[in-house]
Amino acid sequence: MSLNAMLFEGIHVFAGVSPVVDMVSVFMARYFPVVIAVFVLFFIFRRNSLKEKLFVLCFIFLSALISRGILAAVVKFFYYHPRPFETFNFTPLVYSFGNSFPSGHASILFALAFAVWFFNKKWGIWLSAGALLNGVGRIFVGVHFPADIIGGMFVALAAVFIARLLIYRFYLFPRSTESSPQKSV
Question: What Å distances lie between residue 53 and 37, 46, 110, 133, CA to CA?
Fold first, then answer.
């Protein structure tokens, strides 16, 4: 058995033991992303100026779009990995379909957290912890392996750096169409 499968079994073995733990895990896996999104929106709209709000919104949105909409989708297209409930033939606590690697939830939630981190490290750490809790919840309910969550985290990290390069290149430092002024001698 692989390390990935052993780690999965070590977390998922507690599913079905307690209805309260199952309920909390289902909440973390399915509904907690909405809580994280609300906190991200609150973070954006507490910026001082409209220009700053728009900049932060664009950066965070671009990071999430690149992470989930492009990078994770490309990896999922070229690499198929079945979900744990398909591999081990059990009924998960929540249902999810399609390719399991990388986790789409992890890729978008970590992208939000890492993008916020560029503006406020404390908020970024809290949101990263929230994304990690969602990931553990998705392992617990049986729809992801630990490697899926870690893969989503790395996809998100790459996406945030790509978004940062794009934003800083085209938003803060646009190309000038004029030639640079010459010193007269």
Answer: 16, 8, 20, 27
Q: What is the mean pLDDT of the chain?
A: 88
Q: Which pair of structure tokens corresponds to residue 49?
A: 């100026």
Neighbours of 24 (CB within 10 A): 15
Long-range interactions of 54-59: CB distance < 8 A, separation 24+: 55/167, 55/171, 56/119, 58/167, 58/171, 59/115, 59/118, 59/163, 59/164, 59/167
Q: What CATH fold (topology level) applies to the domain 3-171?
A: Vanadium-containing Chloroperoxidase; domain 1 (1.20.144)
The verdict on pTM exceeding 0.90 is no
Instruction: Check: CB of residue 100 under 8 Å from CB of residue 82.
Output: yes
User: Per-domain residue ranges for the chain?
Assistant: 3-171
